[in-house]
Amino acid sequence: MKRFLIAALMLSGTAISANAADCGKVTIADMNWSSATLIANVDRFILEHGFGCEAELVPGDTMPTGTSMIEKGEPDIAPEFWSNSMKEALDKGVADGRLAVAGQSLSDGGEEGFWVPTYMVEKDPSLATIEGVMKNAKLFKHPEDPELGGFYGCPAGWNCQISSGNLFKALKLEEAGFDLIDPGSGAGLSGSIAKAFAREEGWFGYYWAPTAVLGKYKMTKVDFGSGIDEDHFKTCTTQAECADPKPTMYPPSLVQTISTADFAKGHDVINTYLGTRSFKNSQMNELLAWMEDNQADGETAGIHFLMENEAQWTAWLPAEAAANVKKALADL
């Protein structure tokens, strides 16, 4: 029996080594925003040290990466793909056998909404609802007119300017005493939040996740009490010509890990890892805040995540791959 177990272990080890050797070169899209480059670097480290791949990061962005994967079969993996941005092309790529969906890289999806500081909700839980906010408009003082409440919308020219403006109208916020403020830029929007938190003042407006801002500043998403009407959101809320917008919460955006179909077919164990590896927005917000505070690039942030969250990522991996990654981290 003992000889049998030893032989079985040797055969198992040989099989795993062979799979690692078969991995070969893998190209991973390193998208040009912080959460995507962090995930790409986590994948590179795990594929290289856990599975024995020759993993390489290549520059990427949503449209060119998706198009290249469909038409040229490269790169092999796009770790964080905001699929709604080219949904028809991706669906056709999957149907034609060119692409495969491994799983959701952000388990909550991309998140949008109207937010208030959590310290306000802790004092008055009703402020987590739109009814509570509307009854207390004067708590959210307008920066130029203290008689009005201020609602910070999305900057002019951004797609979300339309949806936030339509929801401002749908919720009848002007009738409740609010004025819609154009923050001028993303920096202006985040700066207004930082200023409110420094003074522990009221703030009410649009924001999205995952972002470093929501990692640094604890905010509560306001519940409209409407649920999500995806059809109305697509056909009216997001359309500039929407004449009669209705209240609806923002539907989450699908954020997936995409691979070429050829890679998925030839790398079952790695594909299982990619389908299991996922982050919640609350965690990603904190990681992005850490990146910003430490001026860290994706590689540094990826190592930071792996060092600080062993229990999480080891659950994504077979035992031997996890042990290999642990050893590589210990050798740094």
From TrEMBL:
The source's domain of life comes to Bacteria
What positions does the domain ABC-type glycine betaine transport system substrate-binding occupy?
Answer: 25-306
Which interval of the chain is the signal sequence?
Answer: 1-20
| GO function terms (MF aspect) | transmembrane transporter activity
| Keywords recorded for this protein, A-Z | Signal
Pfam families documented for this protein: OpuAC (PF04069)
Instruction: Give the GO cellular component terms, alphabetically.
Output: ATP-binding cassette (ABC) transporter complex
Protein name as annotated: ABC transporter substrate-binding protein
Q: Which organism is it from?
A: Cohaesibacter celericrescens
